[in-house]
Structures are given as C-alpha cells and as structure tokens.
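Per your request, structure below.
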C-alpha cells in the first residue's frame, strides 16, 4: 500500500498529495477494513478509541497517518478487529447516495425530484443535497 504526504498539513496553500515509494507491506497483526466516512459511533466505542486498553486504536492511528481518506479505514478496522465491538457493526452505511455512472470522488447532487427513490431505499440518511 502506498504512503502519502499531505502538504496541506504544514503548508498555507493547498497543493497535491505526494505519493511516496516504496509501498509498505500489509500488516499481519490485524485485518484491514474499509467503509463509508459517514458513520454513527456509540459512546462505548468512542471511549475505547480514546482509552484503548489494548493499544489497537493508537497503533492504527499511526498506521493510517499517511493514508488517503483514512476515516474510511480507521474506525472500520478498529471495530471489526475488536470482538466486543465487531458484533455491533452494520454492513450498510444507512445513506442513500446517487453516484455518477463513471465513479467519481463526489456523488450526484440530490433534489426534490429524488424523493421517491430516497424513500424507497429505506435509508435513514441521504446525501449530497444542493444548497437550494
């Protein structure tokens, strides 16, 4: 997996991410997981992330430091690797999202014309709406 350096962390002006080689090897102490960056976390899980009695949250924080979109990995990897929390994870992000036919970074904008498919989806949340 490639490492990255994000100059936005230390530069005033925005610039492109720098990809660093060589790729790092995959870990064998835990299994990597991914998911949506939009999530709801329980209080006991957040307390575990803060206090992390087995050091996994801090280990993964260091592992994902130079990762693109680390929120899409960090929380999912923790919850799926800790037996007491893995049973609480849903394999659905509960969002209605309309993507473009060709994958892009951002979803299509939703409006009132999308209400029927949003309601039919049964999702609790929807994104991304225009400001109007």
């Amino acid at each position: 997996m490639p490492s990255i350096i994000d100059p936005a962390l230390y530069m005033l002006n925005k610039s492109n991410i720098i990809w660093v080689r060589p790729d790092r090897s995959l870990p064998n102490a835990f299994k990597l997981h991914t998911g949506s960056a939009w999530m709801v976390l329980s209080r006991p899980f957040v307390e575990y992330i803060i206090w992390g009695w087995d050091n996994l949250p801090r280990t993964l924080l260091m592992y994902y430091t130079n990762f693109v979109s680390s929120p899409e990995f960090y929380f999912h990897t923790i919850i799926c690797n800790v037996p007491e929390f893995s049973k609480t994870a849903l394999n659905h992000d509960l969002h209605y999202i309309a993507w473009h036919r060709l994958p892009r970074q951002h979803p299509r904008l939703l409006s009132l014309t999308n209400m029927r498919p949003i309601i039919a989806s049964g999702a609790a949340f929807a994104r991304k709406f225009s400001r109007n």
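The chain has a mean pLDDT of 85.

Regards,
D.
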